[in-house]
Automatic annotation (TrEMBL):
Domain of life of the source: Bacteria
Domain Aminomethyltransferase C-terminal residue range list: 256-331
NCBIfam families linked to this entry: ygfZ_signature
Name of the molecule in the record: Aminomethyltransferase
Domain called GCVT N-terminal: residue spans: 12-224
Encoding gene (name): gcvT_1
Record key words, sorted: Methyltransferase, Transferase, Transit peptide
EC assignment: 2.1.2.10
InterPro entries: GcvT/YgfZ_C, GcvT_C, GCVT_N, TrmE/GcvT-like, YgfZ/GCV_T_CS, YgfZ/GcvT
Amino acid sequence: MPSYPSPAAVALDSSVVLADRPDRARIRVVGPDRAKFLHNLTTNEVKARQPGSGCEAFVTSLQGRTLGFVSLLVLDDAILLRTEAAGLGPILPHLRKYGVLEEVELEDDSAATFECHLAGPRAADLLASLGVSSPPGVPYDHAPAEVAGKAMRLVREDPLGAPGYTLIGDSADAPAVLDALARAGASIGLVRIEAEAFDAFRIEAGTPASSRDVTDKNLPQELGRDDRAISFVKGCYLGQETVARLDALGHVNRLIRGLVIEADSPPNPGSKLFAGEKEVGWIGSVAVSERSGRPIALGYVRTSHVAAGSALVVRDAGGGESPATVAAGPMTAGG
């Protein structure tokens, strides 16, 4: 039987974990109108950003609904848009539709490049041991770096709620880079993690994933990332009227929340949440906590039931039920 917290959880909290990210997509946006183009189709400030900086943002529809959750990295000659590969479906046709009106081109770099993520309090120490002594300090800032003699781009970001860095490079260099990171981290307790553990830590940190937690049923403010992903002073963009109206109202009807489920296994994504006989939300991402061994989830809950400790019931399509508790912020202790 597995014991908890798992070695991966111990490493994330006290040392460093390493994750390959084959589930990620990278779209390179080029052309003289690239900044204006993305500025007009996302919720965050893009035009004023300088090379070496970046941000997270939502891609929104004309109605102000979320088509995806992305990060944008401003390069000298392009802007790199990153998201989950599974969430690219609604985003790419939308960008292409509006791209015909601008001098931009969309280049899918997903197959030609790879990315991996380091997270934990000793992530910077590991990079320093490989000669990367001054990594970016501000979220989504990025800079060139070299690992195992391979040219990389190093991005500061914290999807797991711990100090984190993502490395992006040519796919052909992935084996050498991953091996160098694992070897350098062995002496400080590095643990390599797979997608399941990454998802569990991401859910505990409250970081949403496109397609699972961010769909066209959502409004940007429901994600609770206004201070990081939405600019309310950037001016007009597609869907801006809806976002501004919600800001003026001061609230939305539901919010994303972490949930701890009392069951032997996680519920199915899309399962409904109930308070008594009243439907109050639904489940998005699910996983088993690496810290507690309990099923956990991100879900949308009506604001009347979002308080930490609120008791809900998860009901699946077959009628099965499991108790669920709304977590208190990031579930860094497994709920």
